[in-house]
Design a protein that fits this description.
Strand content: 5-15%
Largest sheet: 3 strands, antiparallel
Shape: elongated
Order of helices and strands: HHEEHEEE
Distance between the termini: 112 Å
Structural class: mainly alpha
Radius of gyration: 38 Å
Helix content: 25-40%
Strand order of the largest sheet: 3-4-5
Length: about 200
């Protein structure tokens, strides 16, 4: 009886060992890597996410870069018009702008580049009060003493980084500064313009 019992115990013990080995084997198989199909699904999902987010990020970076470039150019134009009181040579102020020299604001930004807007690339440009500006008179320290802005031959300084022409910023009939239409290319008040999209530089 004892022998039989021990034999049965040994037999049961052997079955348990087999069961344990099967369990371990099953766990090992469940910890396998991704199949090719699963990898393709993951790659497809990542591709969709990248296709959605990357263009948006690139567009945002490009917009910020253009906004920065536009602000820099507008500040250059502002200084050309209003002068730079901090610019001195030998302790004497030399950073006079168009307004200080001519005695008024330019009627058009092309007056920053030319004294005679009836010649060359400026001839076809029309604006109110177009005139040949008085030449610089060193005795009275008055007159056009430019160019106040670098001319690229294509009047590129007239346009912001999106290709829209600058405007004077006017409120209550008072000229306050320059304005860019911003990324949408439309000034506020025009149909379809985005609110708070315009860029302004105060004089």
């Amino acid at each position: 009886m004892k022998g039989v019992s021990m034999g049965r115990c040994l037999s049961l013990t052997g079955e348990k060992k087999i069961s344990i080995m099967k369990f371990v084997s099953a766990r090992d198989s469940s910890g396998r890597g991704f199949t090719l199909v699963e990898l393709l699904v993951v790659i497809s999902v990542l591709g969709i996410l990248l296709a959605f987010f990357v263009p948006t990020m690139i567009s945002r970076v490009a917009t910020n870069a253009r906004r920065t470039a536009t602000l820099q150019e507008m500040n250059v134009l502002r200084e050309a018009i209003m002068g730079n009181p901090d610019l001195r040579v030998g302790g004497e102020a030399v950073g006079y702008g168009f307004k200080q020299d001519v005695g008024r604001l330019p009627r058009d930004l092309v007056e920053l580049a030319t004294r005679n807007p009836f010649e060359g690339i400026y001839a076809q440009r029309l604006y109110v009060g177009k005139e040949t500006l008085p030449a610089w008179d060193p005795y009275i320290q008055k007159g056009w003493n430019g160019p106040y802005i670098r001319e690229d031959g294509e009047m590129g300084y007239l346009y912001d980084a999106w290709g829209t022409e600058y405007r004077y910023w006017v409120e209550n009939n008072e000229t306050l500064g320059l304005m860019s239409a911003g990324p949408d290319g439309l000034f506020w008040g025009q149909p379809g313009a985005v609110k708070n999209d315009d860029i302004k530089v105060r004089f």
